[in-house]
TrEMBL record:
PANTHER family given in the database record: DUF1275 DOMAIN-CONTAINING PROTEIN
Keyword entries, A-Z: Membrane, Transmembrane, Transmembrane helix
Transmembrane regions listed in the UniProt entry: 26-50, 70-92, 104-127, 133-152, 190-208, 214-233
Keyword Secreted: no
Protein name: DUF1275 domain-containing protein
Signal sequence, renumbered to the chain: none
């Protein structure tokens, strides 16, 4: 337990020599965003995911088999939007390959614009999710999460994918001391799981007890804070901004 707490402290306040600098806590903020956004998509947009594409592939299979409460078209639209967002993220990664700080800053700024549009849409429609609103939000959020996933992949911070936890949980168990492993970064892995859980919990609570726009607004706030922090922290030529081998 002491080792977990110590590793978690280092994750939240990385030392100067850490080759990833402030990226781990910024990635954790994006993981919370994922939980919030998938809470919105699953609970308010018709049982579809905009960040968890594994879930969408499974849902698509269920829907085509005739399962009730699922939409094949919603899953397909979400995956298409995610792929377009990932394509844009790949272009960003190529353009800003030499500076990870600028890459994260620009990507989260674009995400902020996409999510801001969803907030405006939710406010303008008073939270009423018609078919048009449903697909508009799925496309915008799918683009944002595809972009995030591609950029985070390029940033290459171990155990902080921000959207997928299967490998993180697998590593937490398979690399543990009881399994005969060296147990690398257990605190970071635990924090990643907790961040996703927190985002999903808060997102679901806000949706059930308040308004859709408020949930999306919280995701927007986290993205703006992340983009601003990445911009301010990457103003120097610190080692962490350079691509890692």
């Amino acid at each position: 337990m002491r080792k977990l707490l110590t590793d978690a402290a280092h994750t939240l306040a990385p030392p100067r020599e850490d080759r990833h600098g402030p990226l781990p806590p910024l990635m954790l903020a994006l993981t919370v965003v994922t939980g919030l956004v998938d809470a919105v998509s699953y609970l308010a947009l018709g049982h579809v995911f905009v960040a968890n594409m594994t879930g969408n592939v499974v849902f698509l299979g269920f829907a085509l088999a005739g399962a009730e409460g699922l939409s094949a078209s919603a899953s397909v639209v979400s995956m298409a939007a995610f792929l377009l967002g990932a394509l844009a993220g790949g272009r960003f990664g190529t353009r800003f390959a030499a500076h990870r700080g600028r890459l994260l800053t620009m990507a989260t700024a674009l995400q902020s614009l996409l999510v801001a549009t969803t907030v405006i849409t939710a406010v303008a429609t008073h939270g009423e999710v018609t078919t048009t609103v449903q697909y508009t939000l799925i496309v915008l959020l799918g683009l944002a999460m595809g972009l995030q996933n591609a950029v985070v992949r390029r940033l290459g911070v171990p155990d902080l994918t921000t959207t997928v936890l299967t490998l993180t949980l697998t590593g937490l168990a398979a690399d543990s001391t009881p399994a005969g492993g060296a147990a690398p970064r257990p605190g970071r892995r635990v924090l990643s799981v907790l961040a996703m859980f927190l985002g999903a919990l808060v997102g679901a609570a806000l949706l059930l007890h308040t308004q859709l726009a408020l949930t999306l607004g919280l995701a927007l706030l986290l993205l703006v804070v992340t983009s601003t922090a990445a911009h301010l922290l990457s103003a120097s030529d610190a080692a962490w901004v350079r691509p890692q081998p």
